[in-house]
Amino acid sequence: MEKRPCSSSLAVKTSHVLPPDTNYHGTLFGGILMAHIDDVAAIAAVRHCRKAVVTASTDSVDFLEPVKQGNSICVEAFVTWTRNTSMEVFVKAVAEDLLTGDRKVAATAFLTFVAVDENLRPVPVPEVYPESESEKYLHEGAALRAERRSERRNYSKEFAAKFGTVYPWNM
Ligand SMILES: CC(C)(COP(=O)(O)OP(=O)(O)OC[C@H]1O[C@@H](n2cnc3c(N)ncnc32)[C@H](O)[C@@H]1OP(=O)(O)O)[C@@H](O)C(=O)NCCC(=O)NCCS
To answer: From atom 8 of ligand 1, which residue's Cα is the shortest distance away?
Structure first.
């Protein structure tokens, strides 16, 4: 498979922050922002590999700034790194006061997507290569992040086995 640049997967979505998406503080619900993040990141992953994908994991999302009703929220995502069947996607969410032009980074996150076939089994993806300085920076740190995710996944599996599917928990 031919290698593809990070930039070819770039996906961007800008939305108005409207009342149904806000809480009683008049700011964007965290869950709505996470849905935007997953949506745009998935588009970037599919753009990279041109295959169906599933979200394998989302690294911690830190909500750095409240996003006020009436602001816009712009979510940008691109593939930073690939292994065999998985792709790391970096996402940045920027809130903008449309009347003043004031912008703030509201959140950043890394998500991992896995390309799958019609039976939802993992399939290989093309390699990605960085071009810009920021792409190189993200690409270089990715192997270490993937290692940490792998450890976290094993830990999550241990937890799942420990607690089981029924209540009361079978500890
Ligand atoms: C993600 C999934 C396809 C992995 O399948 P699997 O049979 O466990 O496959 P593997 O263990 O061989 O992992 C396949 C790849 O996914 C990566 N991966 C799996 N779980 C991961 C996780 N939690 N975080 C990061 N990467 C993960 C592996 O590192 C591997 O990457 P590589 O091929 O690039 O080396 C499977 O766990 C799944 O379907 N999960 C549910 C996905 C889902 O429903 N998402 C939400 C809705 S889209």
So the answer is: 122
